[in-house]
Amino acid sequence: MASSITLIKMPEVVLNKIMNESDLKSILILRKVCHSLRTFVDTHDSGPNLIDLNIYIKPNEIEAWYYTRNGLHVVHYRGRNQENNCVFLHENKEKVLRDMNFVDAFLLDLEIFISLQNSVMRQFRVTRGNADPFQTVKDVNLSLFNRILKALENVLKKRPRPLQTNEIHLAVEDQEQVLSILKSIDAKVLKNLSIYSNLKEEEELEINEIIQMDHWKQAKFLMVEDFILDVPVECLIQFSFVRAVLKTISTKDLMVSKENILQSSIFKEFSLTYTQLEDESEISSVLGEPIITTDIFGRQDFKWIIDSPVNCQKVEITHFQTHRQFKITNIESLEDKVKRMAQERS
């Protein structure tokens, strides 16, 4: 009787063919079969390319969303009580990896997929939690988060070329953590830069080095949440969309914003919350007399509509005084919107 041939005993040319035809789900399974197959997968130079990679870090779990052309695969890496075992959950199927911490198991998978990635991703995210409305910043395991960011930095450094992604979303404690990741991201294809805070209180984020990077100059969408930026609005005018909290907004900031935004062909919307508003009494001298609206609670909003000299569009500036926020929006007519969408499709 002929002896049975196991997968690991197959010729390397056959295993290479299997790898080239495997999707991400199959690769995840192969890596969990045995040490020999994991080593083979990790040293193979091709595999499925990710479209999105979203990593959500929880106190005792890492949830990874791997999205490829074959679909979305959500994988949970969980710690198991006090044991040094990892629970690997994928498509409601649970596998226990003995003598392996859940963080180590995740990092092994992360390294192989990052190293195999050779196309432009749509989105790359490393943030806390998931879409859980009850989770707060206080629920974040900062030592775990910092360990993963440091491991990610090292994995990215090993790549022969910068990782390419249109969007990057990072939860951090300070500027250094942002820099450590951005240095290994290709600025030429970056469109969206989103930064979230892992701190317990809303604190200032130094960005003096970030604003000097090509990534800052190249991106068109900026979102900074739960941080306060101590920068003039002038540092933001190259973006088409901004959502952030500024330490101070002055009359000079509004004047610079007005002049630059009216000349911009890419501007869409700025939502700028402030902690301090300087020279509030002089705003009308810069923007003109406002349209004042009052809600049923007696709260007043101030609105200005300004014609753009560059095109037929209008810019609407609204001061939500109660919320300490300026919202600046490009008002696009239906006809102009249809023309723009037609041009974008062509």
From TrEMBL:
The record's listing under PROSITE patterns reads:
FBOX
Q: What is this protein called?
A: F-box domain-containing protein
Q: Domain F-box, which positions?
A: 4-50
Q: Which InterPro entries match?
A: DUF38/FTH_CAE_spp, F-box_dom
**A Pfam family annotated for this UniProt entry:** FTH
Q: Which domain of life is it from?
A: Eukaryota
Source lineage? Eukaryota, Metazoa, Ecdysozoa, Nematoda, Chromadorea
CDD domains reported in the protein's UniProt record: F-box_CeFBXA-like (cd22150)
